[in-house]
Structure formats: structure tokens, C-alpha cells
Specification:
The chain is an alpha/beta fold and 128 residues long. The protein is 47% helix and 20% strand. The relative contact order is 0.16.
Length: 128
């Protein structure tokens, strides 16, 4: 596990995925450090998915979401599937009302759901 400098964000490799525990109120430098670190880890480790866990985040502005979307899209272009889990109800409503949902990103109620989805997806790809 490695933490993005001074942000409290942990990145854990779990069942071939990178699980990123997000923290509220990341400043621009912390977000840039996270973006760089994740890009390096994806290029080196080639995970099947990157899952951002928002269980500790209660508020998310549209601009913060757009930064997260841009980061996830760039990671997706490197190969892995990308997902967000554990969004609080208020953030889900806000994103739905503002039509900020993008098809490249999968959404899950919890980390377990994401793990099950990506484990099943990998198994079904090998079965073909």
C-alpha cells in the first residue's frame, strides 16, 4: 500500500485491482500527485480495474467530479476498467440531476460489489 503524499489516500492492490480510498477536500496538488501516482501504478502493474472508494466523502462538487472523471478516463485509456464505489446518496442524486454520469465509469454500491463484478468479468472472459 502506498499513500499519495499528504493526502491520506491509500492505494491497495486487491484481486488484480487497484482500490483507491479517496479523501474529502483534495487540493489541486494532492489531486495531481494522485493522478501521477495512479498512472504510474497502472502502467507498471496492469490491473484489470481501478476502483475509487468514496466511503469517506460526503460532498463532491461538479468540478471535483469532472477532475475525477478526467483522471479515470485517462486511466481507462491505459487499459483497466474504471469504477466508483460507495457514493453517498446526496452525491448520487446530484450527479444524476446534473447528468454527469459517463458510460466509461461503472458505479457500485460497495467495494464488494465491484470486486465481484470484476472477478466475474475476468472469469467470463477466460471462459470464452
Amino acid at each position: 500500500m502506498r499513500e499519495a503524499q499528504n493526502s491520506g489516500i491509500s492505494i491497495t492492490k486487491l484481486q488484480g485491482m487497484l482500490l483507491v480510498t479517496m479523501q474529502p477536500d483534495l487540493d489541486s496538488d494532492q489531486f495531481r500527485d494522485l493522478n501521477t501516482l495512479l498512472g504510474e501504478k497502472v502502467a507498471k502493474e496492469r490491473p484489470k480495474a481501478v476502483v475509487l472508494d468514496f466511503s469517506t466523502v460526503q460532498l463532491l462538487s461538479h468540478s471535483e467530479y469532472e477532475r475525477i472523471y478526467s483522471m479515470l478516463l485517462s486511466l481507462h485509456l491505459l487499459g483497466p476498467q474504471v469504477a466508483i464505489s460507495n457514493l453517498c446518496h446526496e452525491v448520487v442524486l446530484y450527479l444524476a440531476e446534473s447528468e454527469a454520469i459517463h458510460p466509461e465509469i461503472s458505479f457500485f454500491l460497495g467495494i464488494e460489489d465491484a470486486m465481484e463484478h470484476f472477478s466475474t468479468e475476468g472469469a467470463s472472459k477466460h471462459a470464452r
